[in-house]
Amino acid sequence: MVSLLHREYNRDDGVGLAAPQVGVNVRLMVFNPEGRTRPGNESILVNPEIVEQLGGKEVGEEGCLSFPRIYGDVERSRQITIKALDAKGQPVKLQLTDPWVARIFQHEYDHLQGILFHDRMKPAVVETVRPSLVALEEEFLAAHPEAKIVRVPPPKVNKGFGAVKK
């Protein structure tokens, strides 16, 4: 399992990958904040948990290997404390104080929770990526005509009180 995830991670130019992204329903992730520039620096975590969120929040642009060429701002904690098992099954507890590393972990952790990065975007940001998401759905449906999807409609545009917040 670890080798499959590691192989898929190395195939693309990302900085992290969670097992559910390759169709494996286990709580396992691999990430390397430097991506292909420093191979061999991957962290493999099994059954990770966020123990504490520190350092406030920050908004930053994210993309996802599961949604190629789609990017949008997502708010994340700047620093977190996590616990997990390493690839050898040994318990680890880490303080991720670099906001970039904390962001990568939280993005992959969300995959393990069934949350996608566009689920964390503010409504106005989702509307900027909606056409690209719909295009991916259409591409998938063309390749898999038997598939059924349910689209979430865009929010109603209100003026004044009750308007979509940006």
Automatic annotation (TrEMBL):
Chief subcellular location equals plastid
What organism does the UniProt record list as the source?
Gonium pectorale (Green alga)
Mention any Pfam family matching this sequence. Answer: Pep_deformylase
Kind of enzyme, top EC level? hydrolase
**One GO molecular-function entry:** metal ion binding
What keywords does the record list, in alphabetical order?
Chloroplast, Hydrolase, Metal-binding, Plastid, Protein biosynthesis, Transit peptide
**Keyword field contains Lipoprotein:** no
Specify the superkingdom: Eukaryota
**Catalysed transformations (reactions):** N-terminal N-formyl-L-methionyl-[peptide] + H2O = N-terminal L-methionyl-[peptide] + formate
| Classification via InterPro entries | Peptide_deformylase (IPR023635), Peptide_deformylase_sf (IPR036821)
Name listed for the protein in its UniProt record: Peptide deformylase
One GO cellular component from the entry? chloroplast
- Cellular localization per UniProt: Plastid, Chloroplast
- Gene3D superfamilies given for it? Peptide deformylase
Q: What family does this chain come from, according to its entry?
A: Belongs to the polypeptide deformylase family.
Q: What is its EC number?
A: 3.5.1.88
GO BP of this protein: translation
Please describe what this protein does: Removes the formyl group from the N-terminal Met of newly synthesized proteins.
